[in-house]
Amino acid sequence: MAQMDAALEAPKKKSLLPLLIGLVLMLALGGGAFYAVYSGLLLGAHAQKPAAKAESSAPEVHFVALDPMVISLGDSGLRHLRFSAQLEVDPAHLPEVDLLKPRVMDVLNGYLRAVSIEDLENPSALIRLRAQMLRRIQIVTGEGRVRDLLIIEFVLN
Q1: CB of 81 within 8 A of CB of 70?
Q2: What string of DSSP letters covers 64-113?
Q3: Does the pTM of the predicted model rise above 0.90?
Q4: Could you give the CA distance from residue 118 to residue 93 in angstroms, rounded to a whole number?
Q5: What's the first-to-final CA gap in the chain, in angstroms?
Q6: Residue extents of the structural domains in the chain
Q7: Which of 29-33, 60-64, 66-70 has the highest mean pLDDT?
Q8: Could you write out the DSSP letters of every residue in 6-22?
Q9: Which of 23, 27, 34, 110 has an alpha carbon within 20 to 30 A of 145's alpha carbon?
Q10: 76-104 pLDDT, tens digit each
Q11: Residues with Cβ < 8 Å from 98, sequence gap 6 or more?
């Protein structure tokens, strides 16, 4: 009978004390680590030095403004594209790119006339068009002279 009483008794519950101690230690160590990183005690000296170097060593660039263009689109000629842009140029190549500006305008004019109206109306196509125009400009001016094409105005009428 004693054996049956022992079998009927409920098993002993485990103590929650180790779990609570672990939780308190985890919060304390996490808070301490956050404070050390946030206040700059840990990683503070290393994290601020590269940012200071990046500000002082900004590359020098110049911009060459392209003349605004109005391009007739389609066969009817009733729709027009008003386009203006600037070229981001390395200062060493500024005179060369400035001399080639008429060729750049000619390439852009020819390319934009050939693009379909549907491509020009699609807002997501502007990134692809910009990349295509930049590549054509880099071919005309030579590699390494023009860094980027900044589109200032792109309006369909």
Answers
A1: yes
A2: EEPPPEEEEETTT--EEEEEEEEEEE-GGGHHHHHHTHHHHHHHHHHHHH
A3: no
A4: 36
A5: 100
A6: 2-56, 62-156
A7: 66-70
A8: HHHSPPPPPPSHHHHHH
A9: 110
A10: 778 899 999 999 998 999 999 999 999 99
A11: 64
